[in-house]
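Give me the fold.
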Amino acid sequence: MGKTDKLQTKLQFEAQKTPRSKDWRREELGAVLEDQESDAEPELHHILATMESSLATINGKIDSLSYRMDRMTERLDNQVELVDEAERRISAVEDKCNNVSQAQTQADRTVAALRAKVEDLEARSRRSNIRVVGITESTAIDNMELFVEGLRIRLLDGRLFQTFFVVKRTHCSLTSKPPPGSPPRQVYCCFCFVGGDFEDMAVGGEPAAVAQHALKEEEKAIAMEEQELRHWK
């Protein structure tokens, strides 16, 4: 039982023993209230001080949290700017990659066209350097190379060719033999060019040796070119 309860019980007991006036009761109640206020005042001050301390702590934590939120917002803004910059750069790189891809595709097409053209020119240079027209189908020719060489010497008299040329191979056009009275097939000739030191050797009186050596060198060059073409294919 508390102090206030004891006082109230005591007052009730005294009131039952002897009758009291209303003024006396008021005085007694006022005294009791003063005692209660005097007893509760230190506790109230303690509670208020505790609340003020708690409020100060809460305010400090709120300020710290607000500062941290501001820092986080600033960092997020920086990250958003960095992400936007990265997206712009990625878009620029993708555009450049597309341009490079298109350029590479065009370059591949150009290289393929040039390679086909080179192969075609190579085939033409090997097979159809000179075409001889008008040799009848009934002409009996044992060695076409010597026949064409004789034609070159007789018809051109060596004036068109200032350097030494050797007939490497000849063949007729790849068609069936024409019937009698029709135009004859054309003869294709491939010449081997010999210049420089070989030309001096030819002038010095060794055309046979020069021709044989030139043929060997030309065969080696053609073999190397064919190997390179197979490699590229």
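The first strand starts at residue 130 and ends at 132.
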